[in-house]
């Protein structure tokens, strides 16, 4: 099989490409240039698409003896990931840019270009498993290493993309095993730190990034009764469940911490209150992507996950058109519109939706 290996410059993608070569595939390595600022440098484990990453990817390809190319996808990344990130925050929602990147870049733009060039599949260093099932489309399952599992951010890719994807690391027991394999193979990235946070916000200051791109928009911070208790520089920079960085100088009457309960960008207000007011018992989702044509998820043991490294929550679900309704088996806190909600049966991913609302516990 002719395989396009996405080489980020990290250890995971390098080992994934090596395993694809070992499996007998005709492998070509591609580094995706996503940043508009190619001169940027990596800071520890922050940032991506830097000079160092491109160089590390090239060295890995040379070591594996496979062709290597750099594809400039910075326009697509800006249009589909960064612009979406800004628009979602501006609308008072909390996006997950990794989900959008997988949907529009790694398994759309990259795969489409690869398909046009005659490639059969894209191999990445994601931690997830594709397992043959009862339908022609393979089933997406959690990785063996639950701690590193990335099925949550892959659920949005859709059935068609699954048939043209390879995840060679899905069966490894731990990241230590990947690093040891990389060292044994002589790959110089074996000890390279993992990247984390939002890749295009290299300094980790998301609020600062939003202010630079969206401008300062002062407004009121309100308590749960509607009383003004402070001022913000832009409601877009807050997310439901946030505790730190509220900028409040007057403590609550009971002395307890306050959390963001609601972001209203139309009125440019942020409402805060006690932690208990964040509890929800039901969630509504939109823009459903369903991966399991043989399983509607409306009976049996179902769980959901609402954060990239969140735990399984028992739930019952129902679908009507493009709306997903979820009744939670236990209360959750800090559910923000715009987050991704993924439905599982055991380790299998059934589907995904974008959170549009939640029912609070009275």
UniProtKB/TrEMBL annotation:
Q: Which GO biological-process labels does this protein carry?
A: tRNA wobble position uridine thiolation
Q: Where is the tRNA-specific 2-thiouridylase MnmA-like central domain?
A: 208-273
Catalysed reaction equations from the record:
S-sulfanyl-L-cysteinyl-[protein] + uridine(34) in tRNA + AH2 + ATP = 2-thiouridine(34) in tRNA + L-cysteinyl-[protein] + A + AMP + diphosphate + H(+)
- Top EC class for this record: transferase
Tell me which residues bind ATP. Answer: 6-13, 32, 125
UniProt superkingdom: Bacteria
The primary site where this protein sits is cytoplasm
Q: Which UniProt keywords apply?
A: ATP-binding, Cytoplasm, Disulfide bond, Nucleotide-binding, RNA-binding, Transferase, tRNA processing, tRNA-binding
Region described as Interaction with tRNA: 148-150
Instruction: Report the GO terms under cellular component.
Output: cytoplasm
Task: Return the annotated site residues (Interaction with tRNA).
Answer: 126, 339
Do the record's keywords include Disulfide bond?
yes
Q: What is its EC number?
A: 2.8.1.13
What are the transmembrane regions? none
Q: Where in the cell is it found?
A: Cytoplasm
The record's annotation in CDD domains points to: MnmA_TRMU-like (cd01998)
Residues annotated as catalytic: 101, 199
- What InterPro entries does its record include? MnmA-like, MnmA-like_C, MnmA-like_central, MnmA-like_central_sf, Rossmann-like_a/b/a_fold
Task: Identify its protein family.
Answer: Belongs to the MnmA/TRMU family.
**What the protein does?**
Catalyzes the 2-thiolation of uridine at the wobble position (U34) of tRNA, leading to the formation of s(2)U34.
Q: What protein name does the entry list?
A: tRNA-specific 2-thiouridylase MnmA
Source organism: Bowdeniella nasicola
């Amino acid at each position: 099989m002719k395989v396009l290996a996405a080489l980020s410059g990290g250890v995971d993608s390098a080992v994934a490409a090596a395993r694809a070569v070992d499996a007998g595939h005709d492998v070509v390595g591609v580094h995706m240039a996503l940043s508009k600022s190619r001169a940027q440098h990596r800071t520890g484990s922050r940032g991506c698409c830097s000079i160092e990453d491109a160089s590390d990817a090239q060295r890995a390809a040379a070591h594996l003896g496979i062709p290597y190319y750099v594809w400039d996808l910075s326009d697509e990344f800006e249009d589909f990931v960064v612009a979406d990130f800004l628009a979602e925050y501006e609308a008072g929602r909390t996006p997950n840019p990794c989900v959008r990147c997988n949907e529009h870049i790694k398994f759309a733009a990259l795969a489409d270009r690869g398909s046009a060039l005659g490639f059969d599949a894209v191999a990445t260093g994601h931690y997830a498993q594709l397992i043959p099932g009862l339908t022609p489309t393979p089933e997406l399952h959690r990785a063996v290493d639950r701690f590193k599992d990335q099925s949550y951010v892959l659920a949005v890719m859709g059935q068609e993309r699954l048939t043209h994807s390879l995840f060679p690391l899905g069966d490894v027991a731990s990241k230590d095993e990947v690093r040891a394999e990389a060292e044994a193979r002589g790959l110089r990235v074996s000890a390279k730190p993992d990247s984390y946070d939002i890749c295009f916000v290299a300094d980790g200051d998301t609020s600062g990034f939003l202010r630079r791109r969206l401008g300062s928009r002062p407004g009121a911070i309100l308590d749960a009764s509607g009383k003004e208790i402070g001022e913000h520089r832009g409601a877009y920079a807050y997310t439901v469940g946030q505790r730190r960085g509220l900028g409040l100088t007057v403590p609550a009457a009971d002395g307890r911490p306050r959390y963001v309960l609601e972001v209203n960008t139309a009125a440019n207000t942020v409402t805060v209150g006690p932690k208990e007011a964040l509890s929800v018992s039901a969630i509504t989702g939109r823009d459903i992507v369903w991966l399991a044509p043989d399983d509607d998820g409306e009976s049996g043991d179902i769980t959901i996950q609402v954060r990239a490294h969140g735990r399984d929550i028992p739930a019952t679900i129902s679908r009507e058109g493009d709306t997903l309704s979820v009744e939670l088996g236990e209360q959750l806190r800090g559910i923000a519109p715009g987050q991704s909600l993924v439905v599982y049966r055991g380790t299998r991913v059934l589907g995904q939706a974008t959170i549009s609302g939640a029912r609070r516990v009275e």
